[in-house]
Hints:
The chain starts with 5 loop residues before the first helix and ends with a helix. It has one domain. The relative contact order is 0.23. By secondary structure, the chain is mainly α. The chain is built from 12 helices and no strands.
Amino acid sequence: MIGPNPIEGIGFHAVGAASASTCYLPFHKTKKWSWVAYWLIQSLFAWILAPLVIAIITVPDFFEVIKQSSNSILWLTFLLGGMYGFGGMSFGFATRYIGYSLTYAISIGLSAVLGTVLPLIIKGTLISYFQQSGGGIILFGMVIALVGVGLCGMAGFKKEKEISADNQGKFSMKKGFMLATVAGILSGVFNIALEIGQPVADLAAKKGAGIYEDNAKLIIATAGCFVVNAIWFTCLGIKQKNLVELTPKSNIPKSTLFKNFLWAAFGGILWCMQFFFYGLGHVKMGRFQFASWVIHMSMLIFFSFLVGLAMKEWRNVSKKTYATLIIALIVLGTSFFILSYGSMQ
């Protein structure tokens, strides 16, 4: 449909959230690859190749849009995207320590709150926003969200005490919670990068990009993500001497190496798709655009919990611990409904 349509917008957010909640799963399909090798290729597709191709295809005169955009806007969007690059790294490592459901619940719960508050602080409208209609409801929703994050942490520490000794080396709630927290904070920063880059999207809209206008600014922010990750993981790969895994000189069969590249590329494309559909949903939300971030984040937690169940991450815990997780997710879900409702007042 042409023009704003919140129901259609929510549908786009759902597709994007489903993509985001599954983008790390392809790693489990790779063979004889380290996390470093996988992450470098996934990052290349997630933050450079996929968003660049999408921008070129969907934004008329894309390079002219970039040329006409303010250098200060471009650089600030790029640098803030780079800050999120550290968050992306933290998120990836967190899933290895505490699994998908906990990582998403903690980091995305924090992101939903910070991604809503930080742009208001930057614009200097924080106090006035909470004083307007629905502001008190949003503030209450944020407090509930933080309670939900705390309960998720509690469930994780309970799980750590209950899992068998054989799995102790794989599961570390302390490390995972710290990494997920960093990821959540910096994920909120990525939303700021997108807010700062809005003039680029506005220019793309004038060029006829329509509902695809956000693709013009996305590549600027994700390029910052890639640069940070490329430098970090290249240095790490040199130190650990596993960059050879990406070349024919490795002992990996060529067919396996080719499949590894395909799986990593697929994971990167899935990551990119979350913000491709986020952009579509954001535009379609019309006057409810401010609710986009929290709606998207709530759906992310829901789908990531389904992924966690499919991965059987909670099969060895007691009913009490599992109940704590369910309560935490219900609290988080409730907070997002409250935030969304408050944003629409």
